[in-house]
Structures
1.
Amino acid sequence: MKSKKGALVYNWTLTLMIIFILGWAYIQFYSKYAKNEPLGLKQLTLFRIYAKGESVLFYIDQSAKYSLEQSAYDLAKSGGVSEIEVSDAETFAGYECGKFNDAYVWYQLRKNGEKYNSKDCFDEKSAETNLGYIFNKNLDKYLVNYPINIPSGNYNYRFRDNLEIIGLASLPININIFKKEVLEDFSTATRDVKPKPIDISQLNKDTTKLSEGFRDFTGTDLCAKGSKCVLKEDAFQQLVKSEKIAESKKLCKEGTCLEVYSGYRSYDEQNSLWNGSTSEKYADRYKDPAVRIKYVCNPDGGEKSCPHMSGNVVDIRLAGKTTSTMNSADWNNLYSIMTSFDTNRQPLWVKYSNEPWHFECCNTPRYARAISQGVTSTV
C-alpha cells in the first residue's frame, strides 16, 4: 500500500509540474507574440492564408480555361493573325498580304498573262506565338480584377501536342500574412472600400527595404495591380514627394493619384524583354536587332543604355487609367506633377521625350544631363 500511495503522490506532482510549465509557456508566448490577440489567432490566420492561396490558384486555373477558349475564338476570327498596338501599327506576325472583307488573306493567286503566280501569306508557325500573345492578354484581364495582387504578364508559355498550353510563372504570388486584412473574412477583400489619400507612415510599413538600397513597394497603392514595383531608396522618396504634390494639386478626387507599372529591372529581366521571353514578344515583333533596339534596350549596354536597370526610373500613369485611356490633359497633368521642383529648385524627375510615361531621377545620365543644362522638362 505504501508503494501505491507513493506512486499516487508522484503522479499528482508530475501533473502539477506539467500544468505549471504549460502555464509559464502560455504567458511567455502571449507576452511576446500575441500582443492582445487571443491564443491561436496566428495559427488560424495561417489556415486562412492557405485557403486564400488555394482560392487564388483555383481562380487562375479557371481564368486560364476561359482565356484559352476566348483566345482560340479571337485568333480564328482574325484569320490566325494577332496584332499589337505599336507606334507604327506594325502587324504582329509580320503580315504582308493585307485583308479581304476584313479577313486576313492566307493565299494569293494573281494572273500574270497566261500564268498564275501564287504566294503563301500565312506562316503556320506564327499561330502558336500569336495564340500565346492573345491568351496572355485575355488572362491578364481576369487576373487584374482579382482582390489579391497577382502578377500580370507573369507567364512564359509553351504548347504541347497542339492541345495544351502550359504557363510557367516567373514571379510567385505573395500574400502578406502580417497585414491586417488577412485576419478578416475573405469576403471583405471584395467589398468596395472608399479610397483615402496615401498614408506615408503606413506606406513605409507596407514596403520592404532590400539589399543595396532598394525599396520594394509591390502591392501598395503606388504600384499598379499585377505589377512588380522596386526602386532605389532615393527614387522611391522622390515618388512619394510626387504623390503628395499630385494630392496638393487636387488632380485626383480621392485615393492615390499616381500608379507605377514598371520600375527597376534586373539584367535577367531586361534580357528576357530583349530576347522575347516576355508577353511583349519583342524579338518576334522585331527580328532585326537594329530595329528592335528602337523599342526595347539591349541589357548588354548596362544602365546607361537601359536606365530601368539603375532603379531610378518609373513608367507611370494616373491611377485608374491605362496608357491607352490617358488623354492629352492627363499626360500634361502627369508631366506637371513629375517635373515639379523640390526644395533645391530642381525637378523631381525628367521625362524621356519618346515616352510620356517614362521619368528618371537621381543621377541617371539623362537626369544629370538635364540638371547640368538647366533643362527641367523633356530631354
2.
Amino acid sequence: MALLTYQDARPWAKAIKTQVAARKMPPWFADPAYGHFQNERSLSEQDIRTIESWVEAGSPEGDAKDKPAPIAWNDGWNIRPDAIFQMPDPYTAPAKGTLDYLYVVIPTGFTKDTWVTAAEIRPGAPSVVHHALAVVRPPGSEWLKEAKPFVPFMPPLANAESGNRNDPQSKPVDMSYELLAAYSPGMEAQRFDIDRSAKLIPAGSDIVLQVHYSPNGKTAIPDQTRVGITVTEDAPPKRFYSAVAASANWTIAPGDANAEGRARLTFGEPVELVYVQPHMHVRGKDMTVRLTYPDGRSETILSVPRYDFQWQIVYYLAKPLQLPQGTRVEAIAHWDNSPNSPKNPDPSATVKYGFQSTDEMLNANMGVIVEQ
C-alpha cells in the first residue's frame, strides 16, 4: 500500500500498529548488541509507542499547518545517473515456469577508464524481477564469451561442484569480472564515494546484466531492466571493491531445524570494510559475521538472529572499519529445514547449494576499499 498521505495511511492504521509492535516493519534485522550502522531504520520503543497511541486514539489527522513540504521525487531514480545502460528491447517473462538466469551483455563504449561513484539498478517490471546484478566485464575476460552483445542469453547454470562459473557472486579467482551493483527488494542504490574511493570500469568494458525472473503464474510480463551510474572525472586515491565470503561445502538434511554452515575469507592486504550483506534463501534462519585479527583478537560485527529472505538488506557500517592484512572474516549461518518453518517449500528435501530459491546459499557479501 502507499503511505504518502494521511488518506493513504489511515485505512491501514491497525495493521501498521500490529506490524511495528512485532518489529516486522520497518524491515531491519540486525541485533543492536553488535555493530552500529549508518542506514539503520529500526524504530525506538518511543517511536512504536507513539504509533500505538495514535491508533488507539482513533488515528486522528494532524494539523494541516504542520505538514512537511512535499518531497521533490527523482524520476524513478534514487541517484541522478550520468549514464544509463539497459536491455535494447524488453524481455517478456513467461506466465509460468522456473527460469534460469538471463544475461544481457551491454558494451559501455567507454574509451577511457571510468570511475563510478554510485550505481543503481531499476527493474522495468518489479513484480517479476526476483533479483538483478550488473557486472563489469573488462576486455579480454573469458566469462560468458558465448554471449553476443545485446542478445538475451540464458546458459544452464553450473552446479556447485563445477565451480558456478556463470554466477558473478561465486566468481573464480582470476578476478576477470566484478560486481558493480545489485537489486532485490530492500536494497538501496549502492554508493562508492566513501573515504575518497570509487569503483572502476576499465576502458572497453561491458556491463553484463544478470536478471532472474519469477513468473507470477498468471500473465506474461515484459521487462526492460536498467542500470544507472554516476561518475567522477578524477581518478580517486582509493578503489572500492566487492568481496564475498561464500561456501557451498555443506548439506542440509531433511527436517533439520538448525543446520549450520560456515564461510571464510582472509584479506591478503589491508582494507577498509564498508558494508556486509548476509544472503541465504527461504530456509535461512540466522547469520553471524565475525572478524579474527592477525593478533588473535576477534569480534562480532553483525548478527542477524531473524533472517528474512524477502528483505535483502545491506548493512553499512557507521564508518569504514580498518582491517589489517591477514584479517579473517567468518560467516556462521543456520537454516531451518523443518516442517515448523512456514517458508519451507519441502521439509523432506536434502538441500544443497543452488541458484533457485528452493535451493540454498551462504554468502556474506562485502564492500571494501583499498589503496590504489
